[in-house]
Amino acid sequence: MHPVEVADLTVAYHEKPAIWDVDFHAPAGVLLAIVGPNGAGKTTLLKAILGLIQPSAGTVTIFGKPARKQMHRLAYVPQRGSVDWDFPTTVLDVVTMGLYGKLGWFRRPGKKEKQLAMLSLEKVGMAEFASRQISQLSGGQQQRVFLARALVQDADLYLMDEPFIGVDAVTEKAIVELLRELRSRGKTVVVVHHDVQTLKHYFDWVLLLNVRKIALGPAQKVLTTRNLQKTYGGRAAFLNGNA
Amino acid sequence: MLDYTLLLVLSGCLVLGAVAGTLGSFAVLRKQSLLGDAISHAALPGVAIAFLLTFSKHPAVLLLGALATGWVGTLFILLITRTTRIKHDTAMGIVLSVFFGLGLFLLTLIQRLPTASKAGLDKFLFGNASTLLRQDLQVMLALGGLTLLFVLLFWKEFKLLAFDPDFLHSLGRNTLTLDVFLTTLLVVAIVIGLQAVGVVLMSALVIAPAVAARQWTDHLGRMVALAAFFGGLGGVLGAVASSSLTNLPTGPAIVVIISLMFLASLLFSPHRGLAKDWIRQRKHRKEIHANQVLVALFMLSKSHGSRYYRHSLTSLQAVTPGSAEAGLEALKKRGLVSGSASGWKLTPKGAQEAEQAAKHIYGEAP
Lengths: 243, 366
Prior knowledge:
The complex is a heterodimer of chains A (243) and B (366). By secondary structure, chain A is of the alpha/beta class. Chain A is 32% helix and 26% strand. Chain A contains nine helices and ten strands. Chain A is globular, with a radius of gyration of 18 Å. Chain B has helices at residues 4-29, 33-54, 59-83, 88-112, 123-126, 134-153, 155-163, 165-170, 175-191, 194-197, 202-216, 220-244, 250-268, 274-303, 313-319, 324-333, 348-362; strands at residues 337-340, 343-346. The longest helix of chain B has 30 residues, at 274-303. In chain B, 45% of the residues are buried. The model of chain B has no long low-confidence stretch (mean pLDDT 89).
């Protein structure tokens, strides 16, 4: 029973398939990166797992059951650019949103929820920004807030869409630390990633994707020149030295 | 003492303004401002159809009709955007014009019917609060109260739906259902205002209070409360204005007053106001200009071999953009230059600052 398992998944926008017949699973307790060129269907795959996009074919199971029934066991970190950061709310309030699922209908977040959110903010080094309006955050700070919101959910499976995009080196390091901490607690983390150079350092498992699945497995085994060339086409030439 | 009719009208406008402001806040934050316009126009044929089916002008009947077509119009927009490649704004445009056209067509038909009770439906175009009756107010209070209650009950969900719907989905909530629910509440909020404000201008009462409120606060709860207040106040003042001027329809009166509130908020709110931006920019520009004059004075003195060489205003004006005199006066106030009409020179403090500024501009040792 894998944390996430995808079978024969095909997603098409109008006629063009975005992902085609993809099978993949993430074993428990790994940091898994979904990697591929622009338009490879990385985000689409993540959204299909979440049920945000209806697949044309295929199934998604999370811990052995249909994804729809297992949402309480996962935490999602959307792309930072997917929301309007001018929304009238504070950092602490955004993090508290991670607890709305547990709170259930009609109940308002109280003292306990605020405390949990504060703890989560401390973990990402943002405690001092708790009462700040979210429009006054830098890109890296926005990303940390989103991570804190996922951490407070205390899920078993984390799905993150490009958490490293547009953040500075310090934040990138802090995020990697967080991912490792999650792994050490037995959580499974699936991350859409774009930087081939850092793959081996950050992740244990890799899914190489370019509309179709190219390869899946432990990073050391999967990241061969041949696989990367298959994923990136001719553009992989410059990667040979490092990959 | 207020007379009964006026009190009735005022309460009605208060309720419809407050409800429109509340739901409008969510519409504005979800970037659906124009949806309100489409909905209100789409409600017009509903009024006509309800009348044609029942020949009754009871508000419950007419509003039910408005609710039905307003909702169907919204559904059409959703359907068009989801199943075709037509974009959201185009879909709204189509629904707005088609439904409004149909509504006008039906209203014209009704005018030609030989029944006695036909008159008065045209108030749904531009609104007429003075015709509000006790039963109208009852319907408005019931529907408006219910709408506000639902907003309070589903506050968390609606907030997240507006801020990050994908995340709301990931919490296991059905976002499509919640979306339809919130939009339905918006339809209700619009429909209860139609008789008093009219389909043509109702969207202003949805958008303007919310945008005005956003200017004053960065807190969603306070924004919604303030929008409700602005909407209610605008409704009441508009009703008063329209009742004291003969032949002024209520809709335009309310819209003009709400627009004034919006304009004042846009200009004078403490954090996001344009006036504050403008003052800050002007101060900044003045400082930069003064600095330019300071550096010009410094460079000119250097070429004369003495830091404290006295220059005439004309020679300084030749090397500075804008008014050299204004800049010099500002510098004099800061104690950086001394002089008068006879000529200007740097003070020691001024020379020091000028040297630093020059280094900043020209790099090391100019």
